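[scheduler] slot 2 assigned
[scheduler] job type: sequence-to-structure, two independent chains
[scheduler] chain ordering preserved from manifest
[runner] begin chain α
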Amino acid sequence: MNLHHLLAARMDAGNPVRVGLIGAGKFGSMFLSQVPTTPGMEIAVIADLSPDRARAACAHVGWEDTRIAATRFTDAGEDLIRDSNVEVVIEATGHPAAGLAHALLALKHGKHIIMVNVEADVLAGPLLAEKFRAAGLVYSMAYGDQPALTSELVDWARATGFTVTAAGKGTKYLPEYHDVTPDGVWKHYGLTADEAAAAGMNSQMFNSFLDGTKSAIEMAAIANACDLSAPDNGLIFPPCSTDDLQNILRPKSIGGVLDRDGMVEVVSSLNRDGSDVARDLRWGVFVILKAPNDYAAGCFKQYGLPTDETGQYAAMYKPFHLIGLELGISVLSAALRGEPTGQSRAFNADAVAIAKRDLSPGDMLDGEGGYTVWGRVMPAAKSLEMNALPIGLAGGIKVVKAVKKGAAISQSDVALNLTDSATILRHEMEAAARTAS
């Protein structure tokens, strides 16, 4: 609770926190909108495949012409990372391979990195974070996104002496969403294809939020950051209101839905019949905590914290996340405190590619949110045993063996490019995990 004062000291010293942003999409634009009202933090460089589009984004979020003119724009993330004016790098491309490449380059050049790119983090984040820690640099989740906000709740719960039973987020989910392709996504958002196109909305990206892939990726990130477990058979997305979190997200042995304590899960804002859950948590995050003793449980009741009928389980939640509007917290925490706002620390969970339809040799996989695969979270040990294909490597590669709809795809089912840097880094992490086990 001291970041603002630390930032003011940097500003008074004439040494603002200088940031480089890679990717000026929605997340990046939301962050840029906050910069003019955060004295002491400056954007030194913005990298985007279209610098003109990035300049337009700055103007759209309210930057004055003088601020835009004082900012350097480039079309290459590598150029940004090498710039000596950049202290903290924000990786917001959403492209797994690009994210890993940018992280390794930031490490080489001694720059802190904020990984908005959760796809890259789940692909090889535990290994990257270890490399950054060894170099005395910060590798961090992005505050404002749900994995970092959930990690904060988990940290709070553990630092106050509670057992964490479950942690996760809310979303809009029905089982049939796993089969949705970009062609059918917009009806689920209440839009026509023309309306979405006019708003510049990408159908494959939005479909990844709907078909369960983004939830799998984010829960794997939380499990890896918070030493939690992934469900053996994937997320179950129970319909749940904020009033019922502590009743539903507890072990099956006492009437909940979890296999055991210490798990990640996502709750749905829709009942299975498609009706809305009252007081849903669609945009929020939660942690379920367990009292360590009867005295603490008694205090729950005395101070008005809703619990389950045992009095032992309670929920804490945040009903929203503001993504890029909150990202400055990560930037300042890295630059001023040398601390991440959530960080992968163990390879506990993985997000793997599941066939959306029967796949035949010669078919091309098109990655998250596409026509061919969706992502399911599973324990990393199970993924390693199956040699499962991570969803982050499931784009632009050819199928070489038939795979049935609903089956997890093995790395041996596709023609992986073993010389690709992202694949090499992923295999390095897998080898280390197998050796450790």
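[runner] end chain α
[runner] begin chain β
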Amino acid sequence: MTMHVLLFASGNRHKAREAEAVLTLAGVGCEVKLPADFGLDFDPVEDGGTFLENALIKAHVLYRLLNERGGLDGAGIGAGILADDSGLCIDALGGRPGIFSARYGERDGRKIGAGERNALLLEELRDIENRAARFVCSTVLLFDENRFVTAQETVEGEIAREARGKGGFGYDPIFLLPERGLTIAELPEGEKHLISHRGKAFRALTPFLRER
């Protein structure tokens, strides 16, 4: 199995570990690095109007930053740049938090933690019966400024009445899979990788990684 090195356009090590696990399970051996591992100050302005636009922004900003350091080859990034933008879309809230999922509930520019965001959403939905929701993930695998592939996937579910489970991260404890009777945070890690929005979107890129 060829070991690929991917640079993930994110500061989130949870996502990097998840991407590495998903791709390895799919038969693509990889090591997923973050910009911080290369001393890069990566803080893009995510001002796109869709998940895909924001994923592309992240990928291109990181590509340009890396070019200032000698490019992908100079850094030993043989498989390209991986970027994603993902979030939770709730029908009863008109699709919120959507592309603002990571920043939902900000107060005076101060981000709140995942537990606080989950509590905020549960309170907003306290008296609402329609709890249909979906996780959306848009991914980009970028090889250079003009060559990239994208994939977008979802997982359908509902917002639970209370947070449950210790696994996963972010909104996982409040996202219920009705057919399983479990939140994503209650799933074994391997099962989460099979059914999650990010798992499906990352796997969609594997044919292009195998060509590298």
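[runner] end chain β
[qc] chain β: Helices lie at 13-25, 51-67, 71-75, 114-124, 189-195, 197-203, 206-210.
[scheduler] slot 2 released
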